[in-house]
Design a protein that fits this description.
The longest helix is centred in the middle third of the chain and has 15 residues. The chain has a single domain, classed as Aminopeptidase (3-Layer(aba) Sandwich). The chain is α+β, with helices and mostly antiparallel strands. It starts with a strand and ends in a 10-residue tail after the last strand. α1 packs across α3. The chain binds coenzyme A (COA). Coenzyme A binds next to α2, β5, α4, β6 and α5. Coenzyme A (COA) binds next to α2, β5, α4, β6 and α5.
């Protein structure tokens, strides 16, 4: 558990818990349409209970998620990775920071924390599908120290390949 001072608010960063499902649904309801679209690459005004449940039930090994919580117990950000079979060396990464807390360095800090956990757990590469126009996400990954190789696919979506230790990982052909 870590505490962070973000825009004058003391936030607690901790692993997600199974009992966070309702808080995650509430957090999602408060997101702007743009933030939801950037996170899910689709409109999604409500987070279905089953999906929220899946997000909050992690195993801490292949699926890891950290949440940032305000002093009242409201979730204000989530960052996660899901390792990919067959060898689990690559992990899909995703993050959302609630609109109120964007632009204060929280996203960069959370990605850095996730990198530390992933690196220690043997993950070699982060993967992410990000709108090509999502400058904030591209900069956040860069600020956290990641260098991305991009292979675009689909309309306006970049598939980012980000080695955690660039020297150890060969660039894909
Ligand atoms: C992308 C996101 C996680 C960034 O989190 P954040 O806490 O706002 O980011 P930070 O404050 O750490 O800023 C990181 C960098 O992005 C830049 N940035 C932040 N918001 C920006 C915006 N709207 N436009 C352009 N740059 C932006 C910051 O200036 C900073 O760059 P700098 O160091 O050059 O100044 C957040 O905006 C978010 O949740 N967006 C919606 C969800 C999403 O896009 N998810 C990506 C798909 S997984």
């Amino acid at each position: 558990m870590t505490t962070l001072l973000v825009d004058g608010q003391l936030l607690t960063v901790r692993p997600v818990r199974a009992e966070d499902t309702a808080a995650l649904i509430t957090m999602h309801r408060g997101l702007s349409e743009q933030t939801v679209y950037q996170r899910f690459l689709a409109g999604r005004p409500e987070l279905a209970h089953e999906q929220a449940d899946r997000f909050t039930h992690v195993d801490g090994t292949h699926r890891v998620a950290l949440v940032a919580e305000d002093p009242d117990g409201h979730l204000v950000a989530v960052v996660r990775y899901d390792r990919q079979p067959p060898d689990y060396l690559e992990a899909e990464v995703a993050i959302v920071v609630t609109d109120r807390f964007q632009h204060h360095g929280l996203g960069t800090e959370l990605v850095r924390m996730l990198i530390a956990r992933a690196g220690a757990a043997g993950v070699e590469t982060f993967l992410a599908d990000v709108l090509t126009t999502n400058a904030a996400m591209h900069r956040t990954f860069a600020d956290a120290g990641l260098k991305a190789w991009t292979s675009s696919y689909g309309a306006g979506v970049s598939h980012l390949v980000m080695p955690l230790r660039p020297a150890d990982v060969r660039r894909p052909a």
